[in-house]
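Input sequence (66 aa), recorded before submission:
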Amino acid sequence: MKRTTVKCNVSSCHYWGEGEVCEAPAILVANRMQGSPYSDASGALGRHQQAHTSEETVCETFRPRD
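Predicted structure, token format:
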């Protein structure tokens, strides 16, 4: 199985690795709706809305470095 390389320039993230490669075991990217990834607190709405630009998405895998 071919692995995909995820490039990232957020050096303050725990998963940021050499060569600006994300080293997280899994990546969660959600739609950004009205400034937040979900349209309500439960997360039930907005998860499957279509994004048209990268600005309409947000990476939820981010974790600050220790």
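Checked by second reader. DSSP finds no helices and four strands in the chain.
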